[in-house]
Amino acid sequence: MTQLNRRRFLSSGIAIAGGGALGVFALSGTANAAGAPALHTDGREITRGWTYTAAGNLSGNQLSGAQAVDGLKPAVVPGTPLTSMIANGEYPDPLYGHIVTDTVPDTLKDTDYWYRVAFGVPRLIPGQRFWLEFAGINYLATIWLNGTEIGTIEGAFKRGVFEVTDIVAKADGTAHLAVLIGKLDYSEGPLKPSYTSGVTRGGRNGGPTGITLENGPTFFCTAGWDWLPTIPDRDLGIWQPVTWSTTGPVRLADVRVDPVLSADLGTADITVDLALDSASAKSIVVRGALDGREFTKAVTAPAGASTITLTAKDLPALRLNRPKLWWPNGYGEPHRYRLTIGVESGGQVGDERTVDFGVRRIEYSKPFTDPSGAAVNGLAITVNNQPILVMGGNWGLDEALKRNSAERLREQVRMHRDANLNLIRNWNGQSSSEDFFEACDEHGILVWQDFFSSTEGPGPANAARDLDDIRDCIVRFRNHPSILLWCGGNEGPPPQPIIDGLDALVAELDPQRAVLTSSAGDTGQDPINGYTSGGPYHWVTPATHFGTNDGTHWPPFHNEVGSYSIPTLEFVRKMLPEASWEHPDDFWADRDVNGNGGNGGGAGYLKLTAQRYGEVRNLADFARKSQLMNYECIKSIFESHAASMTGAAPGRPYPRTGVIMWMTNPAQPSFVWQMYSHDLEAHSSFYAVQHACRRVNVILDSKTFDVVVANHTRAALQGTVAITLYGLDGTAFASTSLRVNEAGPSGHTVIGNVAAQLNTAPGDVAFARLSFTDPQGTELVRNFYWAENPARAKGFAGLDDLAPAAVSVTATAQRGRDGLGLAVEVENTGHAMALMVHLQAYNTRTGERILPATFSDNYLNLAGGESATATVRLGTPPRADEIGVRVDGWKLDQRASRLRGRGVTVTFNQDALSTRPAKKTFSA
């Protein structure tokens, strides 16, 4: 008879500790003791052999048995029903060349789904325990194993950990697992795209009425948002791995590592809390190692759940002297320590864990006087005694259909690092996974971790379920040094029971971190103020951003502000059917071109592009002009904050403390709110962010024409800024040199103004080159702008009168630590300005882009005689003899240019350069 008490569901959510791998004492896959079977504490993922079907009349008892069942199809796990259907050829990828709601029936959301798999299990000996873990399902799950129902999971962000020892002991080497995935409690029909409406999908987020928000934690954005089409299956399914493991009688259910760094950064005391699950009362030895120093402690584990605490006071190995610190990107290395820890009973290891963690000290606020005259604590981040200007990006969802492998996710986060960002806001927690936080730890990216409420609809009907998922997220991820703070939700307070519950959970489980009520304000005890959402979410002039963020406007921290962000010509063609390339329509609307209705939707943005840069003649011309639109607006979002960061000046009481761009990562192919495309191609927005967020920068204020040195570092800077102004013909008409006597640390310094010189520009448009060199003559940073003549601002249509530039491009294939890569040297060999010279890696056999391809710099701007070198890392390169580099830009003189390849082909990108058809073909 099955002993049900040994097969309990761990409803408290404690499981594998965050931030590391398992199998720390190299016992996994080896004998635990002479003649004993191996322990598998490292979590063996069940990846092969999954099948699925719509629920129908099938039963868990039937599906979790050995007998064949007709009608099941191969399933992708982790995955959703729709990803399985796409993999099986039932539907094309709906995000490319299709309108999602016209391609896949919205009825996929209206049924439950069964998943089924058989997997091998080891022979167990007395005292050995077998565990089954689900890292994430959506939305409800009932789990059966070998004919027995073993438990349930509720909510997309709650793990399920089940002991199934008694079942597996009788399994005779094979276990049969069946999982019933339950549909959402509340759903409604889709939001349809309409280009002519000027708003995205009816102007609503969260579905026609927002009822989807009544569900407990789920991917509620899949009901349809202004950046995401309605996803027909609502991302139901088993979206995270399913694993099994074995332990001895005592299991390490959770390991919490809590480092406390001294104010002088000289020592760190590490407290380790171990949650134990013991089959019976046991005398055990806890054995571990930290930074090469071992420790042991003998304790008694009572039957059931218990907790023990290890401190530096009792175990000197848990004190770190002169610790290496975890720093945000751009401020130092994100060092992580590794704690190995296990429990032994009777001389045998029963369980083991490895936890990677970081040592850092965070302060969250500084005093401000708000516009009403009240003294408030304003959000201002200090890490390891270093003030940090938060420069971050919002993620709405990592990928629309949850097709995000660990490798792809790591690449997405790495691109944020390479763009010089230091934070990601995990909007409404929609991308919460171990892989996400692990990648942020590795790359020094702080995380603003939202939870699951939004103002786009009612609060969750089941607040207890919401809080249960929140509890598990905090316990599961709190070891990650990347997590900056917890936040209740998006743009407005959650229902009061959730506010109260979240505050209590953070106080209980993670009191060192701050908790905010919502992204729009904080109502907790000792609230943190001084931050807001609210856009703008559309294109505005750089001068608008500089005027808004000049230190005269409250509040100083802006966590949502964005713009249109048009991808390259190649990607636009890839995401749209050919009939729509030159004729914006509902296919464009399904790719978010209407945004939130700002700029008058897609048609308004196209009109604005033509007003600013001249008539759009074809799709290539639209892509070309949009790269300039991208660059100047998005660059100013970050530069305007850096040019006013820290240190209140007379008449400017609100220096900037942070900005988070809306958005940096696209969940689907899109025309808006991104810094790279869905296929991870970096377009001009990426380099706008990268150039704006350099830790030392020299900035031209687009509103006042002040020249500002932004210094994020801990040391004061000295040197000289040389400024050269050029006319449309590439001739310098003014130059000046400004002395930087001292640009203080962690702040901005205004060193001069060039408005008078710009007024003398010979035409409507001028170019500005700024170069900051140190006292030894070493260039610290170079910056570039195109600017309207302040005396007669008329936009940039005059750029079409720019003479074509002659360039020399030499590409060399080279092998490095990261594999095959490229070095590309670009020189302006003529007199005309080489504007936005764009390099693209491609496969010479297929003509397709090589992605991911990481360029150290791109969209280069070079005056006559200037040169630059870009290094290129190729993620998955083809054969060496199939690697090519394509070149395009604003206007290039192909006859006068020189292209050379050393082990690589170099060509002009003729499609991208074909911007002047004999007759206009583009219709907005």
UniProtKB/TrEMBL annotation:
Keywords: Glycosidase, Hydrolase, Signal
Lineage: Bacteria, Bacillati, Actinomycetota, Actinomycetes, Pseudonocardiales
Gene3D superfamilies to which the protein is assigned, alphabetical: Galactose-binding domain-like, Glycosidases, Immunoglobulins
Exo-beta-D-glucosaminidase Ig-fold domain segment(s): 791-890
InterPro entries linked to this entry: Beta-gal/glucu_dom_sf (IPR036156), Beta-mannosidase-like_N2 (IPR054593), EBDG/EBM (IPR043534), Galactose-bd-like_sf (IPR008979), GH (IPR017853), Glyco_hydro_2_cat (IPR006103), Ig-like_fold (IPR013783), Ig-like_GH2 (IPR006102)
Signal peptide: 1-33
Domain Glycoside hydrolase family 2 catalytic: 376-518
Residue span(s) of domain Glycoside hydrolase family 2 immunoglobulin-like beta-sandwich: 250-360
Gene Ontology BP term (one): carbohydrate metabolic process
Molecular function GO labels: hydrolase activity, hydrolyzing O-glycosyl compounds
Domain Beta-mannosidase-like galactose-binding: 72-240
SUPFAM superfamilies reported in the protein's UniProt record: (Trans)glycosidases (SSF51445), beta-Galactosidase/glucuronidase domain (SSF49303), Galactose-binding domain-like (SSF49785)
Family label: Belongs to the glycosyl hydrolase 2 family.
Listed Pfam families: Glyco_hydro_2, Glyco_hydro_2_C, Glyco_hydro_2_N2, Ig_GlcNase
Protein name per the record: Beta-mannosidase
